[in-house]
Amino acid sequence: MRELNISFIPPSKCLREFIDCYWIWESDENSLTELPRILPSTNIEVVFYYQSPFICTDHNNNSSKLPLAHIVGVQKTYMDLCATGQIGLIAIRFLPGTFHQFCKEQIGEFTDHICNISEVWGQLGDELQYKIHEASTTQHRIDIIEHYLLLLLKSYYKNTTHQAIQSYAINQLMQSNSKKTIPHICNEVGISQRQLQRIFNDLVGVSPKYFQKISMFENTSRTICLLKEHEYLTIILENGYYDQAHFINIFKQLSGTNPLSLLSKNFMSYFYNTVITPSPNM
């Protein structure tokens, strides 16, 4: 596998409530290259290529070349990517449950889908794609992205009770050591489980139960990879799994393979859930 240059940049303060980070992949070579398997995620991302777009193969083995700029919805299963030439892309990683502040669509429409940004943002999306492609530096691309994100936020921002409930529930469900159940959270915010499920489907893209399932999987896999730990029983118990068999079963469901097989390949490339520390001047 070729050496990839991967970097992460935190957003400006005005967007930190919505954006986890901007991340960049680059390489100098031109060759057919298999990339690390992309695992399920609670984040929605918008990806812009300024070099060759990837080929994506889903869990059903269907392959297609990705658009130059596309939105990746919440993914409930894995996908494989293949580079067909020089790699150059910048992506916006939205915090879970925030992308609805930048569009009019219900977020469930994006789940397990990849769509061209022009389908969602129209002419504004086309303009953004063109300017990103023409920009010559990473900082220039980020400046362009943040300008357009603020325009979209001005058009679509919603401050509702549902938003507050969703934000609280997400925070609770993402805590690996949280003992709160979904019924407990519903009782705290004064709504039924059916109401919370409807809010999550509309604003997050999956049900609270599935969100918790993916979040546990992300937290556990990230910890194992970043610690480069093959003996992971303590880690999986700390993250809420009953035992090793429980974790292996969920891992196979979501990744298509067993933990040791996949994680050993991704110890050096598990960038997908890297924790970003904001720089003091941003």
**CATH homology superfamily name of the largest domain:** Jelly Rolls
Tell me what portion of residues adopts beta-strand conformation: 15-25%
Strand order of the largest sheet: 1-2-9-4-7-10
> Total helix count?
9
The total count of strands amounts to 10
Spans of 5+ residues with little confidence (pLDDT < 50)? 267-282
Helix-strand pattern, N to C? EEEEEEEEEEHHHHHHHHH
Distance between the termini: 34 Å
The percent range for helix content is 40-55%
Content-based structural category:
alpha+beta
| CATH topological fold name of the largest domain | Jelly Rolls
Radius of gyration: 19 Å
CATH class membership of the largest domain: Mainly Beta
Instruction: Let me know the largest β-sheet.
Output: 6 strands, antiparallel
List the helices and strands and how they pair.
Layout: E1 5-9, E2 19-26, E3 33-34, E4 45-49, E5 55-58, E6 63-65, E7 69-72, E8 79-83, E9 88-94, E10 114-116, H1 118-134, H2 138-156, H3 161-174, H4 182-189, H5 193-203, H6 208-227, H7 233-238, H8 244-255, H9 259-266
Antiparallel strand pairs: 1-2, 2-9, 3-8, 4-7, 4-9, 5-6, 5-8, 7-10
Helix pairs in contact: 1-2, 3-4, 3-5, 3-6
Pfam family, one: HTH_18
Protein name: HTH araC/xylS-type domain-containing protein
Organism: Bacillus solimangrovi
